[in-house]
Specification:
CATH topology of the largest domain: D-Maltodextrin-Binding Protein, domain 2
Helix content: 40-55%
Number of strands: 11
Number of domains: 3
Largest sheet: 7 strands, mixed
Mean pLDDT: 86
Strand content: 15-25%
Length: 287
């Protein structure tokens, strides 16, 4: 018979990976560190493989651990969805969620609509702002959950829930670009602005800020008016704007953008349910 895997053991494993260690995982799971360590040992014994390489400062995944991680997340997502469906206890309260405006207006509406139908007595308080300002508000205790942009593999801790390539965007396809390159960007600090200017500097290409605006709609309008060029995730490019051919035009590669979900310690049940919904719907491309 195949090994029977308890969701509790899988949850301990996923949490240790997401938190980067046993101490932080134990705090999130509201268990002792030794108890979490024992759960991981039991899971490894059941599977007959080593899942984690342990060191005094952090843990890393083995090859078997990497193979298990994605499947464990899928199992837990289905488990939590099923449990929520038949949980008759009424979930109430308010959830304070922060997200960048571009992500909030494209990928979040479907997630939040489904959540509102499942939990009609929960009040959603959504703040849209630049990533660094969201992090400041989160660190000050003003948010339960926040979706923030980060450089892949570095920067802000949290669970990666979205990744896609960044592209150069203009009003229309072009055979040549002005020099210096006029940019339509958000004010500093902005991850996309920093990524664009750093890439241009590395490539030795001159640029200037032609239009700076905190509003996503305002930035799109500026590009439509031909005031300059901007940087957007590929799936967030409006239908009436064009993705530029960076190879033909000599524009530097921008690589991928990454969105991470961070959560405050000891979030209320309503926020826990929203976190589960975000991971379920976004991590596997449902939204």
């Amino acid at each position: 018979m195949p090994a029977s895997l308890s969701p509790d053991l899988l949850r301990a494993f996923v949490t240790v990976v997401e938190c980067g260690g046993f101490s932080a995982a134990a705090e999130r799971l509201h268990r002792g560190q030794s108890a979490v360590s024992l759960q991981i040992q039991r899971l490894e014994d059941r599977l007959g493989v080593k899942l984690l390489n342990r060191s005094p400062r952090h843990v890393t995944l083995t090859n078997d651990g990497e193979a298990l991680l994605e499947q464990a997340r899928r199992i837990l997502s289905l488990h939590d969805e099923l449990a929520a469906r038949f949980d008759k206890r009424e979930v109430t309260g308010a959830v304070r969620l922060g997200a960048p405006e571009d992500f909030a207006t494209t990928h979040l509406p479907g997630v939040l609509a489904r959540f509102a139908r499942e939990y009609p007595h929960v009040t959603l308080e959504v703040t849209c702002d630049l990533t660094l300002k969201l992090i400041e508000q989160f660190n000050a205790g003003g948010l339960d959950l926040a979706l923030v942009k980060r450089e892949p593999g570095t920067g802000v801790d949290g669970l990666r829930i979205w990744r896609e390539p960044l592209v150069w965007v203009g009003r229309e396809h072009a055979d040549a670009l002005p020099d210096p390159l006029p940019l339509v960007v958000s004010p500093s600090p902005c991850v996309y602005r920093s990524r664009a200017t750093s890439a241009l500097d590395t490539a030795g290409r001159a640029w200037r800020v032609a239009y700076s605006c905190t509003s996503l709609a305002g930035a799109h309008a500026a590009v439509r008016a031909g005031l300059g060029f901007t940087v957007l995730p590929k799936d967030m490019v409006p239908a009436d704007l064009s993705v530029l051919n960076d190879e033909t035009l000599g524009l530097p590669d921008l690589h991928d953008t990454e969105m991470a979900l961070i959560e405050a310690p000891q979030i209320p049940p309503a926020a826990q349910r929203l976190r589960e919904a975000i991971v379920r719907d976004l991590e596997h491309g449902v939204a």
